[in-house]
Amino acid sequence: MNSGCNEHRINRKVAISHEEQAIITRVIARAGQLLQAYNAESRIIEQTTERLGMAFGLDSVEIALTSKAIILTSRFGDHCVTTTRTMKAHGIDMGIVCEVQRICILAEKQIYDLEQIKQRLDNLNVPKYNSVIVACFVALSCACFSHLFGGDSVIFICTWLTSFIAMRIRQWLTQLHHNLLTVFFITAFTATFIGSFASGFGWGNEPELIMITSVLQLVPGFPLINAVSDMVKGHVTIGMARWMTATLLTLASTLGIVLAVQLAQLGGWL
Amino acid sequence: MSGLLLMLVDDAVFAGIAAFGFALLFNVPRQALLACVLFAACAHAVRTLLLHLDVPIEWASFIAATLLGLATVPWSRKVLIPRPVVTVAAIIPMVPGVYAYKTMTGLMTLHHQGYSAVLQQQVVENGLLTIFILIGLSFGLAIAPVLVYRNKPIV
How many distinct structural domains can be found in chain A? Predict the structure, then answer.
């Protein structure tokens, strides 16, 4: 498999001792673990680990992916080193995926040696955007969706406010390391509950749009797209796991929505 | 004609802003943000144009995603950033979130209020629409690596 990687193969056949091979394998496993923890596609994990192995002069790197761990075997001559890393989910961070990919290319072009790569992987320095700014713009995204669905400017502003509050709550809960399902449930509940007041007051041309669009920030688009692309490219089990995760997240947010709607109906303003 | 053009521009601008928010949420690196917004705006405008020409939504999504996937290849090679970093954030405005929520709320109402054929019809229709749009989007993105660059890493 991945015979296409041959063009990247570096033609240096230096003997690698068993200890060196173990160190190389640890570095590759670390790269794979990072990619998986920050939600990279399975194809990228497979290709990057293989390319790193080739860059360091190994004969082959085989990787078995499960939804919770990666198992990696590197082979040089008759020597095999196998290692397993469990995955600690960290949410989505494309900055880290980019950085690991860049490190892989640096190794391939022989700009960095093993020690430098190890250093750089251990001290990843990927800046994160300020959380208030992120919340502002995610809320703006939801407001844009309300415009795309035909809401007027009152709806636009109300959606922005509602999603901003919901997004801040989501960030706060995520920071406290709550279960993702709980976070989605509470966020969806808050967004819908606040949005329902606009319907009560009859603001804008379609007040229900506020409730619908302010929860759109919770749509698990990333796992859903990743799930189908993984299945298309042959990683069926991981794809199924991702699809199920996405379904559960949708279910959790829907529970929050339904609860908020029923409370609002009980209160009599919806 | 100018009405259609105005609608497309409006659509592109707002889809671009929407993608920008999600790109920040996914921590897309700074040098990829502008590309992400532009790709998202163009892809969404293409889909809206196709929908305007009465193409079914799943095919329109598929074509828009295919164009997006192919367009990102030269860009990705130039800046050495893997494609999913921009494609997924750019495709988020097209993800059928409302249909997914409608399917789930429909299921809960079906359980809560008891069976009714109308409700079941809504659940099945929304659910199928969600699944087919998603498959269309993902297949579209996969066209470039699967059909054109078979097994070769793009970056």
Answer: 2
Same domain, A142 and A253: yes
Taking residues A34-63, report their average pLDDT: 91
pLDDT value of residue A1:
40
User: Residue B96 has which token pair?
Assistant: 């059928």
Please state at what angle helix B2-25 crosses helix B84-91, rounded to 10 degrees: 120
Q: What is the mean pLDDT of chain A?
A: 89
Question: Could you give the dihedral angle defined by the CA atoms of residues B145, B77, B25 and A121, in that order, rounded to the nearest 10 degrees?
Answer: 100
Number of domains in chain B: 1
Examine the fold and report which residue of A122, A157, A190 is the final residue of a domain before the chain moves on.
Answer: A122
pLDDT of A15 reads: 82
> Measured between CB atoms, which of B95, B152, B155 is closest to A4?
B152
Is the separation of the CB atoms in A206 and A151 below 8 Å?
Answer: yes
> What domain range is A22 assigned to?
3-122
**Tokens representing residue A115 in the block:** 């020690």
Does B85 map to a domain?
yes
Contacts of A144 in chain B (CB under 8 A): 14-15, 17-18, 21, 93
Here the CATH number for the domain that contains residue A83 is 3.30.1300
pLDDT value of residue B153: 73
Contacts of A140 in chain B (CB under 8 A): 17-18, 20-21
C-alpha B89/C-alpha B104 separation (Å) is 24
Q: Which two tokens stand for residue A252?
A: 């959790």
Chain A to chain B Cβ contacts (< 8 Å): 158
Last residue in a domain, options A67, A98, A122: A122
Cα nearest neighbour of B80 on chain A:
A102
ipTM summary value: 0.90
Kindly state whether B21 is in contact with chain A, defined as any CB-CB distance less than 8 angstroms: yes
User: Which tens digit of pLDDT belongs to each residue from B2-54?
Assistant: 889 999 999 999 999 999 999 999 999 998 999 999 999 999 999 999 999 99
B98 at A interface, C-beta within 8 A: yes
Q: Tokens at residue B95, please?
A: 């993800």
Question: In the prediction, which pLDDT does A205 show?
Answer: 86
Q: Are residues A99 and A157 in the same domain?
A: no
